[in-house]
Amino acid sequence: MSLSLNEILDIAKNSKDLSSLKPLLNTKSMIVRRALARNEHIDESMANILAFDPVLNVSYMATKNPNCTKIRDFSQYKLSNCVLCEKDERELDCTNCENKKIFR
Known about the structure:
The protein is mostly helical. The chain has one domain. The chain is 40% helix and 0% strand. It has six helices and no strands. Helix 1 packs parallel to helix 3 and helix 3 packs parallel to helix 5. The longest helix is centred in the first third of the chain and has 10 residues. The N and C termini lie far apart (41 Å). The model has no long low-confidence stretch (mean pLDDT 91).
């Protein structure tokens, strides 16, 4: 049986089972990796990997995780409201978000 996106997001955000969480490090879904980065039950290794994710939405959140020991300097980036967004990933609707700003 296949899990829905919301079920995967729930696991990424809340699970304490590292064996369930580690495979999510390699998912193509940015939103799943972002939820994983915000999970305070991930270990230091996972948090540090996510801190250098190529997607700022993920890496920024990972550096805010208390288990992250790597320091990233984001001062060279103009962080959009999307990167700084604190909404639960299970409730995000980026397409219709009022706070969304497009930087070109």
